[in-house]
Design brief:
By secondary structure, the chain is of the alpha+beta class. The chain folds into 2 domains: 172 residues, Peptide methionine sulphoxide reductase MsrA (Peptide Methionine Sulfoxide Reductase, Chain A, 2-Layer Sandwich), CATH 3.30.1060.10; 134 residues, Peptide methionine sulfoxide reductase (Metal Binding Protein, Guanine Nucleotide Exchange Factor, Chain A), CATH 2.170.150. The protein is built from 10 helices and 17 strands. Strand 4 and strand 5 form a beta hairpin. Helix 4 crosses helix 5. The longest helix has 28 residues. The chain is elongated, with a radius of gyration of 25 Å.
């Protein structure tokens, strides 16, 4: 009887250990990280990160000073030592710190010594506040890489400082770009930030300051532009090169149900399989996932008064469409793509046209 009790106790303790281990695994999988950036007016800095996949929350606030729980009036006086900043909680499994640095540095003037755009004073100077040594190292590397890109004639003057206590700003300032869109858009334009960023980055927006992954040796870094107007129809050119959108329910592939592969109309790189196509009811071809994620580039799109995630092809740099998080399982994604950006190759022609390696996904 005693022996049975001892065995039962050991079994119970073993199950407890397993339970604790599993809880730790779940916690690690769900663990979030924090990033803090000061980029002048926090309305604009907050808007730059909103809608980015993997970002859980973006809070406008104050950090870097000694005064506890400062108000906007106190910070804006420039006498508290605080900076207007944003605190970002993100999921590292979906978005890396390098990508956050890339977004931040492309939303500011990194050469401004006295503030940011129309806002001058220490409270508006650009700072990367690091939360650990890895963030510090990555921030310094990003600034060095930005300097090496030779985009600016003046030196980079963004500070890299240890994170200090962060105080959320008043509710009035949270999500200001959404709650007061008219005033926000007028401010961003009038401050000079909007035109500066457009002029500085323009068609370089997709070039990462610190590459998140090595570039594929088989895919050139620069888009192929020569002769596109002759190669493409006016609609294909408008969609892929000018970020146009075709008419729903009146395009080539929205209701195509044939088996095969969809490739980029410009470069021919494989993008989507018919196996992952579904009827979203939108009137555009919709897919739950790309056939090769490395051929897809995502970037933030704030055009037309919306915050969306644009989808482009990696090799051809073609505008394809947008991706949304209202698709079917298991990914939960909906890649809403313009037919004009695609060329469909039927399954029976895939081998002859050089896409035979993707036939393995089709079951006879």
């Amino acid at each position: 009887m005693i022996q049975c009790r001892i065995i039962a106790q050991k079994f119970f303790m073993g199950m407890m250990i397993v339970g604790v281990f599993m809880a730790q695994v779940v916690f690690a999988q769900n663990e979030k990280a924090t990033a803090t950036f000061a980029g002048g007016c926090f309305w604009c800095t907050e808007q730059a990160f909103s809608g980015l996949r993997g970002v859980v929350s973006v809070i406008s606030g104050y950090t870097g000073g000694a005064l506890q729980d400062p108000s906007y009036e106190q910070v804006s006086s420039g006498r508290t030592g605080h900076r207007e900043a944003v605190e970002i909680v993100f999921d590292p499994s979906q978005v890396g710190y390098a990508q956050l640095l890339d977004v931040f540095l492309k939303s500011i003037d990194p050469t401004d010594r006295v503030g940011q755009f129309a806002d001058k004073g220490d409270q508006y100077k650009a700072v990367i506040f690091y939360h650990d040594e890895e963030q510090k190292m990555m921030a310094e590397s990003a600034l060095k890489a930005l300097e090496d890109m030779k985009i600016f004639s003046k030196p980079i003057v963004v500070d890299v400082l240890p994170a200090r206590r962060f105080y959320p700003a008043e509710e009035y300032h949270q999500d200001y770009y959404q709650k007061n869109a008219t005033h926000y858009n007028a401010y961003k334009k009038g401050s000079g930030r909007e035109s500066f960023l457009r002029k500085t980055w323009g068609d370089r927006e997709d070039i990462p300051i610190c590459p998140i992954r090595p570039r594929s040796k088989t895919i050139p870094a620069q888009p192929i532009k020569e002769g596109l107007k002759e190669k493409l129809t006016p609609e294909q050119y408008r969609v892929t090169q000018e970020c146009g959108t075709e008419t729903p329910f009146a395009n080539a592939y929205w209701d195509n149900k044939k088996p095969g592969i969809y490739v980029d109309i410009v470069s021919g790189e494989p993008l989507f399989l018919s196996l992952d196509k579904f009827d979203s009811g939108t009137g555009w071809p919709s897919f739950s996932k790309p056939v090769d994620p490395s051929n897809i580039v995502e970037r933030k799109d704030v055009s037309h008064g919306m915050v969306r995630t644009e989808v482009r092809s990696k090799k051809g740099n073609s505008h394809l469409g947008h991706v949304f998080e209202d698709g079917p399982g298991p990914s939960g994604l909906r890649f809403c793509i313009n037919s004009a950006a695609l060329r469909f190759i039927p399954k029976n022609d895939m081998e002859a046209q050089g896409y035979g390696e993707y036939l393995k996904y089709f079951k006879d």
